[in-house]
Amino acid sequence: SFSVEFDLNCGVGSARELQTLLSSIYFAGALTGLILGGFLYDQIGRKKTSIIGVIVGVSATIAGTFCHDYYFLLIVRYLMGLGMFLVSTGLYIITVELVPAKQKNYANSWAMILWALGYFLATAIGYFIKDWNYMFLATGIALALMNMQIFLCPESPRFYIVNQDVLAAKRSLKFLQALTMSDLDIDSLEIVDSGRVKDREQSFRQQVKEIFLYSSFLLETLILMYIWFFVGLSYYGFNFGWGSIVPDRYLAYLMASVGELIAYFGIVPLIAYLGRRRAMLLMLLFAAVFFLIAIPDVPLIKDSRWTLESVCCLVGVIFVSGAFAGVYLWTAELAPTSHRGSIFTLCSGTARVGSFLGPYIFNNLRPVTHKAVPLGIMALLSFLGAVGGFFLVETGDKETALTGEDVATRRKSYRYRL
């Protein structure tokens, strides 16, 4: 492994720090990519930005095949994060803007299920391929094959509408018409939404102005950023810390993947029955409860390392995964089309900060404090996320906002209730 090659296998002192840095540098790259994407998604388009991400991410991953230097590996991991989060966020934005409103819940869950299934593939690559350089090669090939669809899908018509390019929007609609084999006469259709932005200039300056001009828009953005931060912190904190919580690392990842699949399948009927808002509050509150239950040191099986903490953390991650799926969909519907790329960047950017800090909680903070400290932190942050979510609006029964002004209008008559 690279730990042996770079003399990091002792797992203590500076070696532990260098190991953790290899995990966290990926999210530093992701944060950089998302800052870049925040401008590119809404300026040059979701599709073009995603293509840039595929090229950078796949190229960096394959370059890891030839890596035999620790600092070169840091660069590879950084560029992997930059590229792959550019494409993953861009593809998700395209998806939610192309899918009809009634189908977004199902499309969102399907995207998250594919995410969870990726862990089975990643585990298989790590288990069956013994040379870590060839792990990068196999992963690079898999990423290239799985992201080919970005070259085939159309740009979002909504992106063209907010940029007042009706002809380009109709070209995208014609592409979708061909895929669905419908008999609509696209050329004769009138795009009503184009009239709502005819006096508005889509620019980075205008985007920033509208966020601060409408206080409700700013409030929603800040709350979403916090929830994303918590989800990133807990999700990746556990994913990089299972070795210290569950006796068998490979079994932990497999069980966590099964838990994610349960969450992603279960979130569909839960959202359909309760709505986006109530489902998110439920996920965050139950996650907090299980993190608190995990604090007592209670062994479950004699002569085994399985404890109450092991089980409760695996169950708690089911609710974190549910929140992970829910906040993606909720953000896509709360953010107006004019700012969707930027809002996803801000939210996912704060999640990357959480993702960067998460591995340190279980790999570095846990060994030097009582286990109640990291678990207590997780429980408190989850509860605060639920409090913040209470002040967001339900979006399942509302028209998608096109601009910041639509966000302010949407909240005027909204009543806060459980």
Write the layout of secondary structure elements.
Blueprint: H1 2-5, H2 13-43, H3 46-63, H4 70-98, H5 104-128, H6 132-146, H7 157-162, H8 166-180, H9 204-213, H10 215-239, H11 249-274, H12 276-293, H13 308-334, H14 340-368, H15 372-390, H16 404-411
How would you sum up this structure, described in words?
The protein has helices at residues 2-5, 13-43, 46-63, 70-98, 104-128, 132-146, 157-162, 166-180, 204-213, 215-239, 249-274, 276-293, 308-334, 340-368, 372-390, 404-411. It has 418 residues and is mostly helical. Helix 5 (104-128) runs antiparallel to helix 11 (249-274), helix 5 (104-128) packs across helix 13 (308-334) and helix 12 packs antiparallel against helix 13. The mean pLDDT is 83.
**Count of DSSP strands:** 0
Mean of the pLDDT scores?
Answer: 83
**Uncertain stretches:** none
The geometry reads as globular
**Roughly how many Å is the radius of gyration?**
22 Å
**Main pleated sheet:** none
Query: Number of helix segments?
Result: 16
| End-to-end Cα distance | 51 Å
Query: Which structural class best describes the helix and strand composition?
Result: mainly alpha
What is the helix fraction of residues, given as a range? over 70%
